[in-house]
Amino acid sequence: MAVKAQKRSLEDMREAAIGEARQMMAEGGPDKVQARLLAVRLGVSVGTVYNLFGQLEELLFHVNASAYDELMVAVNTDLDDARAKGAATVDLMLCLSRTYLHFVVANQDLWAGVLAFNRRGKSRVPDWYRQKERAVFDIVRTTVSGLSDNLEPDRLALAAAALWAAVHGIVTVSVGRDGLLATEDEVWTQIELVVRSVATELGA
Question: What is this structure's pTM?
Answer without folding.
Answer: 0.88
